[in-house]
Design a protein that fits this description.
By secondary structure, the protein is an alpha+beta fold. The protein is built from two helices and six strands, in the order βαββαβββ. The chain has helices at residues 14-21, 52-62; strands at residues 2-6, 29-34, 41-48, 66-67, 70-71, 73-76.
């Protein structure tokens, strides 16, 4: 299951996410989304856990909990929606 984690402090690393969520079971990957120009965290990320029951336990346990000073939002990630192509504005 792919899990969305929002409202992350900018100081959180992918290793931090992996450590926190591995308390609930196996973590296949942890990914923090960064700005492509500055390289700075955008404040959200994703964790992939292969076992759905462990993932659900992690979601229930971690949602609205404090992580390094911020209350994080945790839920099952929704599939990415197709967005219309952007037009250049000249």
């Amino acid at each position: 299951m792919n899990i969305y984690i929002g409202n992350l402090p900018y100081s959180v690393t992918e290793d931090d996410l992996r450590d926190v969520f591995s308390q609930f079971g196996q973590v296949d990957s942890a990914n923090i989304i960064t700005d492509k120009f500055s390289g700075r965290s955008k404040g959200f990320g994703f964790v992939d856990m292969p076992n759905d029951s462990e993932a659900r336990e992690a979601i229930e346990s971690m949602n609205d909990k404090d992580l390094k000073g911020r209350t994080i939002k945790v839920n099952e990630a929704r599939p990415r929606e197709e967005r219309p192509a952007r037009r250049d504005r000249y």
